[in-house]
Each structure stands twice: as C-alpha cells, then as structure tokens.
Specification:
Mean pLDDT: 90
Low-confidence stretches: 164-172
Structural class: alpha/beta
Largest sheet: 7 strands, mixed
Number of helices: 9
Helix content: 40-55%
Strand content: 15-25%
Number of strands: 7
Length: 271
C-alpha cells in the first residue's frame, strides 16, 4: 500500500488554513498512538530539565510534533529538518502565521545533516524505516547533540510493524525500506552511531495494535481504494474513536513483552 499519496492529499486539504492545520494536528495527537508515546517521553524528559531547550525535529513531516512541543513548552526552540520541500515550506508559513518565532524549518537530508553540539533533544518519529543509511543518521544526530542530550525515536519493530507477519506478506507501507527493527539491532546501530547509553522498549502491544487497525490501517485502506471514502470517515471515527482513546491510554501506560513498534532513547553522556 502506498501511504505517501494519501498523506499528500490530506495535507493539501488541511493546508488550506492555519485553523484547519491546527485541527489536523490535534486529531493526529488523539488518533496516533505513537504521538501518545512520544508526548509521554517528552514530558518525562522535560521534568528533568530546566531553562530553554533547543530541539531538532528530525524528519518533521507535517510539523505536528514541533507544534505540540512549542504549544506546551513555549520558551523552547525547534529546528525542523525534512527532505520534502513542500512540507518545509508549509511548516515555515504556518508557524509564522501562528506567531512562533522560535521555530525554523529547512530542507536537508538527515544522512548528511550535521550541526555540531547544538541540540538538547532530537525527536525522530516514523522516519528511520524510510532511510537505508540509518547509522549515518545516528552519527550525525549524535554529533549534533550537546553533551547530556538525547535522541528519541519511534519506529516499527520487526514484529509486524509494517503489517508484515509472514514472509509472504507485503509491507502495509510501501515506502518503507525495512519491515521493522529488532530490539537488539536498533540498540547496536545506535551504539555504533556513538551513543553511550541506549534504552529500547516495545510500543503497540495488543491494545495498540487493535487501536491502530481501527484508527489508521482500515481507514487508510479505504482511502487507498478511493479517496471518496473520506465522506464516511467521520461516521467511522464517531463509532470507534472513544474505544481507540481507551486503547491508546492502555498501551501508553503499560509494559509490553512484544509489540509492532519501538521507542528508543539514546543518550550522549555529559563530558
């Protein structure tokens, strides 16, 4: 299944006004389980920090994580990087209109982008599964973090994170270069990239997998068949939305022995 064309169509619709884009971000925050996990990890990390923090949104996409960060931590600053010039242009326009002077976005390739000892935190959500040269990205992010900084990653696992359960299955997301990371593989690659301390855990356990199918997989499959299905999506979400919220909460605040997603925290130790 090709996911990017659907994202592009949705992005084009919601880019019609800042109010629609903010609404889109808020809907993503509620529906996307990865957003629940990322927000929790950022809140936990923020509780250990003081003063202004400088963040790298590595693979910024629509910019929803940058918006959430600045909406909750207004004194912080964010620099977003993405290879998609349309996304970057849209984010710069939107954040200027919203009055966020401490957010800047630029086109750059993470396999080549390096800004030595600049950022306190790097957030990388649903990006690494699209990049073949992943260790190069980890090395660049490590170099770009200040001592004591952290890289936070959300990515599919090899337990079916791209919808692949058997050798005969095809990835649900056609744009992925890998079907997911093994826990040890991701840990070892981050350590190869220079990180001294790495923690990797599963997300998208049983509650999250059910929620993902109801809130994302099935709706995206309908839209992939015909974008006209967007007319019935409000009724779909009206039916399943409350159930998905409960499942997302359960998944976020539970420990999972296995799961279709991974959360990784990689630290650059203080000097």
């Amino acid at each position: 299944m090709e996911y990017d064309p659907i994202k592009d169509k949705l992005g084009s619709f919601f880019r019609k006004s800042p109010a629609l884009q903010v609404l889109f971000f808020k809907l993503l925050d509620l529906l996307l389980l990865r957003a629940w996990h990322i927000h929790k990890e950022i809140r936990d990390w923020a509780a250990t920090r003081s003063g202004r923090q400088h963040l790298l949104d590595a693979g910024t996409g629509f910019g929803q994580y940058s918006y959430w960060i600045l909406n909750n931590y207004s004194s912080w600053s964010v620099e977003g990087v993405d290879v998609n010039p349309t996304q970057i242009g849209s984010s710069n326009t939107l954040f200027r209109k919203l009055g966020f002077e401490n957010a800047h976005f630029k086109v750059a390739d993470l396999t080549r982008y390096k800004n030595p000892e600049t950022y306190d935190l790097a957030v990388c959500v649903d990006v690494m599964e699209h990049i073949l040269e992943d260790v190069a990205v980890f090395r660049n992010v490590y170099a770009s973090l200040k001592p004591g900084g952290m890289m936070l990653i959300s990515t599919p696992s090899d337990q079916g994170g791209s919808g692949v359960q058997t050798d005969s299955d095809e990835s649900f997301i056609g744009e992925h270069v890998r079907d997911g990371y093994n826990v040890n593989e991701l840990k070892e690659k981050l350590e190869t990239g220079g990180f001294e301390r790495v923690e990797v855990r599963y997300q998208y356990g049983t509650p999250g997998q059910i929620s993902w199918k109801l809130s994302m997989k099935y709706p995206m499959q309908m839209l992939n068949t015909s974008f006209l299905f967007i007319v019935i999506l409000p009724f779909w979400y009206l039916l399943f939305f409350p159930f998905c919220l409960l499942l997302n909460y359960r998944d976020t605040y539970s420990t999972h022995r296995t799961g279709t997603g991974l959360i990784a925290k990689a630290y650059k130790e203080p000097e």
